[in-house]
Design brief:
Distance between the termini of chain A: 91 Å
Helix content of chain A: under 10%
Radius of gyration of chain B: 19 Å
Number of helices of chain B: 4
CATH architecture of the largest domain in chain A: Beta Barrel
Structural class of chain A: mainly beta
CATH architecture of the largest domain in chain B: Clam
CATH topology of the largest domain in chain B: outer membrane lipoprotein receptor (LolB), chain A
Oligomer: heterodimer
Strand content of chain A: over 45%
Number of domains of chain A: 3
Structural class of chain B: alpha+beta
Number of domains of chain B: 2
């Protein structure tokens, strides 16, 4: 009964609906027509007349006026509609249709162009991925206050930039920065990121698994990550540049001039920079993938062995603490000659004059005691660096040539006035290094045939070094309690090194094999003398005051290398096998090493690489090595005023095991990037540094003892662009725990170090005018001897750093920027510190003249001193540094 | 052979600058994202275009092409060598649309010759939908059409009351801000709109103009006997070893790797 009732209702509605439809269908169309004329009664032809819905003003239909200026619509129900004419050059007009009227005429009033002066840019950033290339548009992430492309790179989701300029993409180091496909700067790409203005860059293309050698493209797998910048048209046509003139209080200067060419056949970056505003320019010319270069060459140059003190730089932005007069003159050029041959050169000269002051209280943690000492340093450092290289480069599908000839000169003079444990001394340190090298890489890859490669690296380095201390007493070394004058340590380690190999490679289907046969020679000397002048002006030499070690190391190696590829999987196995001969001899001590051995290494990795989305790899690397001249000298060396070292004629050997996994996920459409890295490292060596630590003078000696150290590391980054709030968020977490052995003051014990860090970076915009960039990092450290759980014997510390940068566009050409940073340091032993810094900047653009004015006020609250604590293994420092204080800089920038 | 191509290119560059000009009031830039390979969606070509607007005309042309040409030209002026700047192929065709006559003219500067051909295309039959969206601050409304073998859905705005749009998509009562075909293989997106009275629209087609059927005939001639065609165009005899083979494909068709061109293949050679 009930269902019948419902049926009736349904039927009723069907009938009603049908009859209504019938009515609609049969309803007569109404002709709506009229004329469009202007105020002078001239008919207007070809103008659009729109029919709109009354309710939401949406367009239903449109037509155009004919030659007579007439239009016509056929419509059903005039009550529902409006008529609108909107055209350039006339004021727009709307007419509401009336029930009985059918003719509507428009008389248009002429008016100025109605469009407002607006430049609308598409605000949604777009990230594209095709194959291994991820492309960002620079303008999507840039703000009007950015000056260089480096400023923009920092804000891009998936990309991070370290303090030293190292760029990472989704957790992997970026090796090269190409400028429109050309590698002008090799790994010294800070010169580009810190110089190139961001507004000339069009795209930022991240190239993963990038094989930069065309002759090996598609033949030899590469896991390199590089970035290519493409430029806007105007930038490619002519030379351009900028000049910055800056000056301020207190007696500050900050000058910069650059000249850039991004033409297809000539690329160059020339820069001159000079400042005393706490920006040391040595980072501008830093080589950013040194580890890979060292691995390729098999060679690491020798650094300074002596120092004037034990202090380190404060954990602060350099521009707060550095007292400097830095200048850098650089010229990098790339010419394209005929037949795709490129000639490249880089020349730079870096001069610096730095003042360094600090007060340092050090605690060295030993299982049964804590050793304390203090030092107060007042140093003047004069580093100078000259570098020049010349590269001949040819990169063709069948042929590759890269020959690099380079020369580097480094000179460092340091005058230090030191108060250590209330004892005053003056020190002078001089280091001068000259090195020449030539690197040749030649590849022939005829189509379908075996690939042949010849590689040769040859280098010579000399680095005389001297540390002079004016008055000190070293009873245990010089066997006299007197205060000695002029204690002198000289070291000279001339090194000749060459590494050459031939390799052949053949691939078929998914299987590739290559064999490398090479020869390496490392010829070194370790010459040193320690002497002092006593109060009677007689020269004293301690026992074993000299080293005169000659070191000859030869390696003959064969490296078979296999690569299988199936689907998205790739297995790579390398088994480098070396036959090594070391002859070393010191005529003073008649010490001798004659060692011949076979070193077998392994390097196995499995990768999974999908075009879009996930890629991952696992790897296992075993590296065996033996012999290092820096661990084998027998005479005494005073490394700094408070420590000296001596070794026995031992041959250090080590085996390093490294195994890990890497996982990354990319979704460019959603602008979402995740990566996870985990690795375990173990180092098994046959020797350890035995230390006698004392608050006045410590001693270290390398002795034979099985020594295993290990570390476990875990990193992850998640980066996402949030479209609805127009911001990028990057969250990173890192965890490291390490175990190492210490043999100090007759105690052998295991030391454990662990650290965790969590950081958040959030940058975006609110409306069109306000942008924010917030950075938070939280780190904890725990350092303790493993067997001793006593909390008195452990160092604990946590650090919080926060920085908020706000940028506001007051007008089209007036911008302000302000930043706040808060630093907190808490620890169980030393001082706790808490600082807040505030900076402010104003920038005004005279757009037509291409001149910018800017005013920078750094450290507004005028903080003059910074105290903090640091931990390095079992050493804890409480350090106090003077700061630059408030700085006001006015700058004018010309673009030409 | 290469030299001949370069010579033709130089001629092109000179010719482009010969027209008389009308001044713009605004210009907008678009990016075309073209998944040109229907077998592999990740193959993408991107190209920037500029649409110059005057009160009576609009001109749509490739910005990337202009840039590449200007670089080549400046290199040529300095070195005397015509070197390709990039291995990417950008669009040669320029599309001029006359608002009052609804006539569309395309210029084609291909190896077939430096011709400007006038082709009138049938007006597009737009179906305006009652769906609105705000894009880049503009109130936009959706419209759909079927055009040259593709179904397009576009967003236009009456806030810029001009009948223009990217490529051949014109005729709505407002500028087209975005357009995409139903397979999403072809996407035009506005990236900027700015007022500008400095850009020029070239409307004089008096030079080297030939009719479209004549142009088709020339293309066919080139396809069948490229050697004779070149000789005729250059007005002199020359020999090439090995002899030039007839071309497998009509030179007016897009390259074979593009298996999803902007318009269905027949429209490239249709009368």
């Amino acid at each position: 009964m009930k269902s019948f009732f419902y049926c009736k209702i349904v039927l009723f509605f069907i009938i009603i609906t049908l009859s209504l439809n019938q009515k609609a269908l049969t309803q007569e169309k109404v002709r709506i027509y009229g004329k469009v004329i202007d105020s002078k009664n001239f008919k207007i032809t070809g103008i659009s007349v729109l029919l709109l819905y009354k309710v939401d003003s949406s367009i239903v239909n449109f037509t155009e006026t004919d030659k007579e200026g007439k239009y016509l619509f056929n419509i059903d129900n005039p009550n529902l509609y409006l008529l609108k004419v909107n055209s350039l050059g006339y004021r727009s007009q709307i007419i509401i249709l009336k029930p009985k009227q059918t003719e509507y005429n428009f008389i248009l009033e002429e008016s100025q162009l109605q469009l407002k002066e607006v430049i609308v840019k598409n605000k949604q950033p777009v990230v594209k991925m095709s194959g291994d290339t991820t492309t960002y548009l620079a303008d999507d992430f840039a703000s009007p206050q950015d000056r260089t492309i480096g400023d923009v790179l920092k804000k891009i989701p998936g990309i991070t930039v370290a303090e030293n300029g190292q760029i990472k993409f989704n957790g992997q180091n970026v090796g090269k920065l190409y400028l429109d496909g050309d590698d002008l700067l090799e790994s010294k790409y800070n010169l580009a990121t810190r110089t190139l203005p961001n507004n000339i860059v069009n795209q930022i293309q991240v190239l993963e698994n990038h094989q930069s050698i065309k002759a090996l493209e598609g033949k030899v797998f590469s896991d390199a990550v590089d970035i290519n910048l493409t430029f806007k048209d105007e930038a490619k046509l002519k030379l351009f540049g900028q000049a910055d003139l800056g000056g301020g209080l207190p007696a500050i200067y900050e000058e910069e001039a650059n000249l850039i060419s991004l033409k297809n056949n000539y690329k160059a970056i020339h820069t001159f920079k000079a400042n005393n505003s706490a920006n040391a320019l040595e980072n501008d010319v830093l080589s950013l993938n040194q580890l890979q270069e060292i691995a390729k060459k098999g060679y690491q140059s020798i650094n300074a062995q002596l120092t004037t003190g034990t202090g380190s730089s404060p954990p602060l932005d350099q521009n707060r603490y550095l007292f400097n007069h830095s200048s850098l003159l650089n010229s990098a050029n790339l010419w394209k000659l005929k037949n795709e041959v490129q000639l490249k050169s880089k020349v730079y000269y870096n001069y610096d004059k730095q003042k360094q002051r600090y007060f340092n209280q050090t605690k060295i943690l030993l299982p049964n005691e804590v050793i304390n000492y203090q030092e107060q340093q007042n140093n003047q450092i004069l580093p100078q660096n000259f570098y020049a290289d010349l590269i001949l480069f040819e990169n063709k599908a069948t042929y590759y040539l890269n020959n690099k000839l380079s020369f580097e000169y480094e000179n460092r003079k340091e005058d230090a006035s030191l108060l250590a444990n209330n004892f005053q001394r003056v020190q002078n340190h001089q280091y001068q290094s000259k090195s020449f090298s030539n690197e040749l890489d030649l590849i022939k890859s005829p189509k379908g045939k075996t690939i042949k490669q010849y590689y040769s690296f040859i280098s010579y380095q000399s680095q005389p070094e001297n540390l002079a201390i004016d008055s000190a007493s070293y009873p245990s070394v010089f066997l006299t309690a007197d205060v000695l004058k002029n204690i002198n340590q000289d070291i000279q380690i001339p090194t000749f090194f060459t590494n050459n190999y031939l390799s052949v490679q053949k691939g078929k289907g998914g299987f590739n094999q290559s064999y490398k046969l090479g020869f390496l020679a490392n010829l070194q000397e370790y010459n040193s003398t320690l002497s002092a002048i006593d109060k009677n002006n007689e020269t004293l030499y301690p026992d074993s005051s000299d080293n005169n070690l000659s070191w000859k190391e030869y390696k003959l190696y064969l490296e078979p290398n296999y690569e299988w590829k199936k689907g998205n999987f790739r297995l790579i196995a390398k088994i480098p096998t070396k036959y090594q001969i070391i002859h070393s001899f010191d005529d003073i001590y008649s010490s001798k090493i004659n060692d011949k051995r076979l070193l077998i290494n392994q390097n196995i990795s499995l990768r999974y690489n999908k075009e879009k989305g996930i890629s991952s790899s696992i790897y296992y690397i075993k590296t065996a090595s033996a012999g290092n001249i820096l661990q084998s000298y027998s005479g005494l060396v005073l490394n700094d005023y408070r420590s000296y070292a001596q070794n026995n004629e031992i041959l250090g050997t080590s085996k390093r095991f490294n195994t890990g996994a890497f996982l990354s996920y990319r979704n460019p459409v959603k602008i979402f990037f995740v990566n996870l890295t985990a690795y375990y490292q173990e180092n098994v060596s046959n020797n350890i540094a035995y230390q006698v630590i004392d608050k006045n003078l410590s001693y270290s000696e390398r002795i034979l003892l099985d020594n295993t150290s290990s570390s476990l590391n875990f990193n992850t980054d998640v980066s996402k662009y949030l479209f609805n709030i127009r911001s990028s968020i990057t969250l990173s977490y890192a965890n490291q725990s390490a175990l190492s052995n210490q043999f100090s003051n007759n105690q052998l014990y295991q030391f454990s170090n662990s650290s965790q860090s969590l950081s958040l970076r959030w940058n975006g915009r609110i409306g069109e005018k306000l942008r924010y960039d917030y950075d938070l990092s939280y780190q904890t450290y725990l350092s303790k001897p493993k067997q001793y759980s006593n909390s008195l014997n452990s160092f604990k510390m946590n650090n919080t750093r926060q920085k908020l940068v706000l940028e506001y566009d007051v007008k089209e050409n007036l911008f302000i920027k302000t930043s706040f940073s808060i630093l907190k340091n808490k620890n169980n032993y030393g001082l706790n510190s808490n600082y807040a810094f505030w900076d402010f900047a104003l920038r005004y653009k005279l757009s037509k003249q291409r001149i910018d004015f800017s005013l920078d006020i750094r450290n507004l609250t005028n903080i003059k001193n910074f105290e903090t604590a640091t931990i390095n293994q079992n050493i804890q420092n409480n350090i106090s540094y003077p700061l630059q204080g408030r700085m006001i800089i006015f700058k004018t920038q010309f673009t030409f | 052979m290469k030299k001949i191509i370069y010579n033709t290119l130089i001629l092109n560059l000179i010719l482009i600058n010969c027209y008389s000009q009308s001044l713009s009031f605004a210009k907008s830039k678009y990016v075309l994202t073209h998944h040109y390979d229907s077998l592999n969606f990740s193959n993408i070509q991107e190209e920037s275009f500029i649409l110059i607007l005057s009160e009576k005309h609009s001109l749509f042309k490739s910005l990337d092409k202009e840039i590449v040409d200007s670089i080549m030209k400046s290199n040529y002026n300095k070195t005397g060598i015509m070197m390709p700047v990039t291995d990417k192929k950008f669009t040669n065709e320029k599309i001029l649309f006359d608002f009052s006559s609804n006539e569309m003219v395309t210029t084609t500067l291909k190896t077939v010759g430096n011709f400007k051909t006038k082709r009138t295309f049938p007006e597009i039959n737009w179906d305006i939908k009652n769906i609105s969206r705000k894009i880049m601050g503009f109130d936009c409304q959706q419209a759909i059409c079927e055009y040259h073998g593709r179904k397009f859905s576009v967003w236009f705005t009456n806030e810029i009351p001009i009948k223009a749009g990217p490529w051949k998509l014109v005729g709505l009562p407002g500028l087209i801000i975005e357009a995409e075909d139903e397979t999403k293989s072809i996407q035009f997106k506005l990236i900027s709109f700015e007022l500008s009275d400095k850009d020029k629209i070239n409307i004089d087609l008096s030079e080297e103009e030939i009719s479209w059927p004549e142009y088709l005939r020339l293309a066919k001639f080139m396809q069948d006997d490229p050697h004779a065609f070149m000789e005729q165009r250059l007005g002199k005899k020359f020999t090439v070893t090995p002899p030039m083979e007839p071309m497998k494909r009509n030179p007016l068709l897009p390259s074979q790797r593009i298996n999803f061109p902007l318009e269905a293949l027949e429209y490239y050679t249709q009368q």
